[in-house]
Structure formats: C-alpha cells, structure tokens
Amino acid sequence: MVLQYDESVRNLLYRRSCQYTQDGERSGGHVEEADLVERVKSFTKRYPNSRTAYACRAEGGCTPDAIAEAIRSTCRQARRDLFEDSLSEWSSESRAWFIQQMEEAKKQNVETYIGTEGTEGTSFISMTLLGISSMFVRQEEKLKTKLMELGLMVDSVDGGDKAIMWKAPYRPEIARADDISVTVSFLRNEAAMELWEGRKEYTIDGRAFKATEVSIAHDRSFKLRAKRGPWGKGGSLAELSQLLALGGMSTAEIAQIYRFQLVSQSLAAAEVQPLAGMLVQGPGQRGRKGPSPKTYVAVGASTGTLQQKELEWVLSSPSTASCEQTLASFRESEAMEGVHLTLISDDAKLRETFAVELTADTFVPRGKIAKQRRALRERDHAGSSSFRVQIKSRSSMSTGRFSRKEMEALCGGGNTSITRVKRAMLELARRIGVTPVSVEVEEDRDTLSWDGSLIALSLATKAEARRLMDDMPFYLEGILEVKLEAVGFKLNPQHEEERSPSSEEQAQESQGQQQGAGWLELSDIDRITMEAASPSGPVDQQVLLDLSTMLLETSEEELLAGKPISLELDKSVGKLHDTFCSPGNVEFMTLGAWAATPTLGTKRNMLKEKLRAYLGEQRWTRVQGNKAARRGSAFSPRAAATDALEQEAESDDIESRSVSLLFLAISKFAEHHGLSCTGKVDKQDRLRLMMREEVDMEAEEGEGVEEEAGAGLSRA
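RESULT FIELD:
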C-alpha cells in the first residue's frame, strides 16, 4: 500500500487549519490573546538571536501580534477530535488501514503485569505520561493524590513504594522544564484504559497529559531532527516548541500538534514524542581544561533554545512494516519539498519563516558497553534472625550490576520502578516456593527507579535460602544469568566454593595526560558537529558512508581489542581554540586540502593516508569518465555533451567538500559502537580526538538513547 503525498506541505497545513479556525470554535491554548502577545515580545528580548527576534526586526517582517495569532491557530491542532482532519488527504483505503493498525497496536503493545503480595490476580498497566509538571519531582505523593482524584490508582507494594519512575534525573540548575516524562503503573481499570487508548482527555491543574508506551520500540520508530542550514545553527525545532509552550501547550499537546502535521503529510505517525532527556552542558565557568562536562538530565520539549541544541523527537509507527513504509515516504518527501513543522498562518512569509525542515535517522544498535569497574559498598543487613541472599549479574561479576537490557528482561519491560522490581522478585520467589521476609533494591534518587545494582532477599530459614540459591538460576535460564551469594551465613561446601572471579583488568585510561600549554579539552564532539551543515544530497551521503568505512578499516584492530582509538586531525578545523566559547565561527578545511597537509611527527596518520588514496581514486574515475565522453566524432552527441559532463564532475568533486563530513562520520561511528569521543585542541589548531568505550551508566541510560532511546530510563 502506497500512502499518497500532497504536493505542497506548507499550503496543505494551512488548508487543514482553515477547516477548524472559524469563529465560534474553541480557542487553541490556555493563554489570553493580550498575554500571548506580551509573551512573544518578552521572548524576542530574551533570545535576540532567535528566528522570532530576527523576523520582528526584519524590514517588512512579522509583528508580535501576527506571531501570537499564528501560535493560537497552531495550538488548535492539539484537539483530539480533529485527528480525522489530518487524514483527509489520504485515500480511503490508506485511511482505513492506518486506523486499524493503530487500534491493533494499542492492544498489542500494552505493558501489563499481575499483582502479588495481597493483590494476587489484580492486573496493572504501565505507561509513560507526557505533560506531567516538573513541580511533582520529589513530590510524588501529591502526584499520586492528583491521579487518584481522576480515578487513576497508582500501584504500591507496602504503601511507601509507589510505581512512579521519572524517565531522567531532573536538575533545574542545569536545564529547567515545565513538564517532563514519567512512567507510572496503574490499576487496570476503566479510567486507566481510557487514558491508554486516548478515548478521554485528562488534565492536572489545567495541563493536559497523555499516555505513550513505556519504552520506544526501535524496530518501528525513527528519530526526527531539525535539518541544519549552511551556517550549522541548531535550535529551530526547540524554538518552535517553545513558541507553542508560550500558547499554554504542554509537551503532550505539542506532541499532538506535531503528529497532526506529520500525518497531514501522509506519514503514518501513531505516536510522536520527545526523548526524555539529553546531555546538557553543566553550569560553571570554563577553566584551563575547557568547559564543564555534560550531564544527562531530564528536559522539556522546548529545552535547547539557549544552547542551540535540538532535543530529538521520535516518530513511532504501529508496526515494523508500516515504519519501513513511513521512513520510505519520508525519504521520498525529503528528496522533493521536504517534511516540515511550522506555525499556521494565512501569511505565507510567516509560515516560511517558522517552517522547520526535518531529517530522519534510524536507531542504531549500540555496541557492547564496557563493564562497570566501580566497587559497590556492601550494605549492613538488618537483624540476625533472617538469612540474606544477594543476587548479582554474571555479565559484570566485578560489581554485579545489571545492564539495561538485563533490567528490562527481569522486569518484563521498560518499567524498572522499585515496585515493579519487587513484584518481579516476589513472583519468582512464589514460583520457587519460598516466602521472602523482605526485598531490598537500591534506588536511583533522581528517577525513583531501580539503579541496576544487586538485589537482596531476606528469608526466614536457612533451608529457604538454600532452595532459593539452588533454584533461581534455573527459573531465570534463558532470560539472564545470575550469581547468588549468601551474606553473613554459610551453606553447603559447594556453595562456598562458588566465588566471583576477580576483576584484574583495570582501565589504563588514566595514563599521564601530558597536555601542552594552551590545550583546551572537548568533553564530546558536539562542539564541532553542531557547526557542521547536514549532508545536502546523494553525493554527500555516499561520501559520509565512505568515510565511515575508512574509520572502521583504520581502527578495526583497536575496536576488537577494546582499546582507545586516537585520531590526529591537526589543522582540519580553524579558529576552534580561539572561538571555543563562541559557536558559529570555526573554519572547516576541504577534504582535499586537509589530506594534502603534512603529518606532524613521525607517526603515520593512517586515516589521512586512506583519505588521500580515496580522493585520488575518485579523481581518476572522473578523468576516465571525461575521456570516454570525448571518444568518437567531433560532431557526435557525446562530444556535444562533454562540457555538461565536466561541469557535473566539478559539482561532484569530492575534494572540495568540507571536512565537516568527516566529523559527522566520526560522530555516527562513535554512536554506532557505543564509544565516547573526547578531544583537545591548542592555539596552533592541533586537534586530537580519543574514542573509548563508555563507562558512565548515566550516559548509557541517556541514549534514547536510546538506550530507551524514548525508554525505561531514557537513553539519549
């Protein structure tokens, strides 16, 4: 089935909006018109370099009143009863297929579990909520009360442990957000099902919230980013989101607006949501070693305007097949007029000014994350009347920490809240035939979820402890491998002989970092890639792929051995040191110019040598093509087309392309293999990058993502 695509995206969005902006309809947003105009004026003063400010200052540009009216018109797209409008350009066959797919997805992708310990046979449902105010962070009891008033009953084991899990740590001193994502488990009653299926609108203190899946399914989702312009400036999508927030829209409603516009462009978007968090530069002044390191924190939909960094959005389709089809439709549209999000207005210039062209990127499987080398402190177990058994993961025997994948496998899904872990352990103990006195799980104080460290079960008798240690590995066979240890008491000799292998391999990462005077440290490669323009055509995409292949060929040995990968990219980026804290002023060399620069020192630069050979091969191919065109009579059609072929060869000249493509390839290479990328630069433009396996658990969870990922704990 092929989804039909309309010829003009911006005009299409405007026509769709005209059908429901007649007088008498409910006003979009929750802000009075005069207040919204004042908010727009305040926004332009606070962000003088934003597109909104430029539009107001330009000759014959937009007025704050016109922008405010466009925001109000766009906010009306958040209405649930207008979803059918977004499908009006679809064929009847495609429309029926999409609606059926969404209904089936809501039934198949639901995450449920059965209660234990006093609630046997009771069914619970887990979901992620968009639009919950950040004011409820560390005020979970108030959030539980608000939800109960709506008929949404939050699960709890002993009255103190609530199944509420913030998707990422919220640190307002680093990045503020009006609302952030949270995963909650509810009693599966009528109210919970209405929320999950979207049949009823729920609000808390006037702010609408909606339910999405606990984890983003990477096989039927892809990431949406704003396409950067030639100047490499980011933040345009974040700015659009913030303008909608000025109109009173919550993250849930902004997601609904974006979904409306994407579906109007014939994309099968079952869900649209922002990733729950991202790496953000921490506060503090830059020292000799560069800026403060980035931290993974919870963010809102509009975060990023100040830092000109985009929060990634995720489009999820009902099924894997529909996702592939949707991505193909996206690529087809991208090659023509593009896929856009914008403000709705009858002013074509205003629509053009705020239109954000999108680019799509699939989720890539992360490489194997390095084992955790931090030793966890043993906790004192309370009382001597019970027998305590610790459960560790065999995949990381030095610490016993469970990986994200193992955490989700143990919990049966992306909900890894304390309540969910305890219920999983109680259910497993019931199947084995023992009754734990207590279940101890370490909590991540920022997200109120399990932090992945070891689990401890206390049992009343030694016989029950022995049965648990004998039987639990068999019950978990095929799911994950665990190691059980007795704490404070001895079992049979065979149990005493089982000891965790010592972790003798220590990272040699902290070797002497002999930095010369004037070196500045890069905490990641984003400082460079944020100024790189997006690949603009098939030739750029092919060069990007070829550069990724070169990186793999030159670093395959280190990659397989788990060793750090060092890259010398001297002189490739000019003025990086001098403009370290002033983005937008670096100068990229061309690939040909950088490949021709001499290598400093005696060590061979294999990447530069491979690039040099690659460019020579491309140059030979173009010359051969031109010679073939000149063969034959001087009056032949081939001879007449020689000039055109030479011009085409010049336009496809690989050597003249920016070396920023190489840095984009390095960024994707690091992401694909689960590597962190740091570096340093000096006043002579000597640039050194180092890629190594990530060991930061927080950054691992931050990967959207993945990862998620969207996400148990969100992965950025």
